[in-house]
Design goal:
The longest helix is centred in the N-terminal third of the chain and has 23 residues, at about 15-35. The chain has helices spanning about 5-10, 15-35, 40-60, 65-85, 90-95, 100-120, 125-135, 140-145, 150-165, 170-180; strands at about 5, 60-65. It has 2 domains: about 1-95, RNA polymerase sigma factor, region 2, helix turn helix motif (Rna Polymerase Sigma Factor, Chain: A, Orthogonal Bundle), CATH 1.10.1740.10; about 100-180, Winged helix-like DNA-binding domain superfamily/Winged helix DNA-binding domain (Arc Repressor Mutant, subunit A). The chain is mostly helical and about 180 residues long. Pfam families: Sigma70_r2 (PF04542), Sigma70_r4_2 (PF08281). It comes from Odoribacter splanchnicus. Keywords: Sigma factor, Transcription, Transcription regulation.
Length: about 180
């Protein structure tokens, strides 16, 4: 059943739009970064995608699913960004575009979102270590940021990953280990 963007974001309410943005922003940034390996560019692309969504909301255009629309838009904007910067050849040489399946990116993004939700439930120091690791900081950088030893960072990560192991399946655990390795 098709719906207008406004029906997905009722009456183009700024609160509904903000809620949608809060819900999708981090997963979309994660998805874009899987293509670009550039956090700043990924954030720019996601912001552009939300600007385009707002245009649709304003014009009452029909879309079937806001989530699917946003993932596809971020995917397309990411590829466009690669072309504009003439990095497509480098990207293709290092990682075939065929390897980056949008379905896999969506699944990985969903797993990342589940991990983020569970990290929020960890004790404060463990939570901070895992959030910084999720942002791509290494153990040394996390230790400096938190003014603790590298061994403390490793211990907190180990204990946090143990807690996450109890929650997630083995497939999800492999992805957790790949992210926080």
């Amino acid at each position: 059943m098709k719906s207008t963007a406004k029906q997905g974001i009722k009456n183009s309410s700024p609160n509904e739009f903000a809620s949608t943005m809060n819900r999708l922003y981090a997963p979309l940034c994660f998805a874009a970064n899987r293509f670009l390996n550039d956090k700043s560019a990924s954030e720019d692309i996601v912001q552009e995608a939300f600007a385009r969504l707002w245009e649709l909301v304003s014009k009452e255009k029909e879309i079937e699913s806001i989530d699917n629309y946003m993932y596809m838009l971020v995917h397309n904007l990411s590829l466009e960004w690669l072309r504009k910067l003439k990095l497509q050849e480098k990207f293709v040489n290092s990682r075939s575009l065929k390897e980056v399946n949008i379905f896999n990116v969506i699944v990985e993004t969903d797993v990342a979102l589940q991990i983020i939700k569970e990290i929020e439930k960890l004790p404060p120091r463990s939570k901070q270590v895992m959030q910084l690791a999720f942002q791509g900081l290494d153990n040394q950088q996390i230790a400096q940021e938190m003014n603790i030893s590298v061994n403390s960072v490793k211990t907190l990560k180990y204990k946090s990953i143990d807690k996450l192991k109890a929650i997630f399946s083995s497939d999800t655990l492999l992805k957790i280990l790949m992210i926080f390795g």
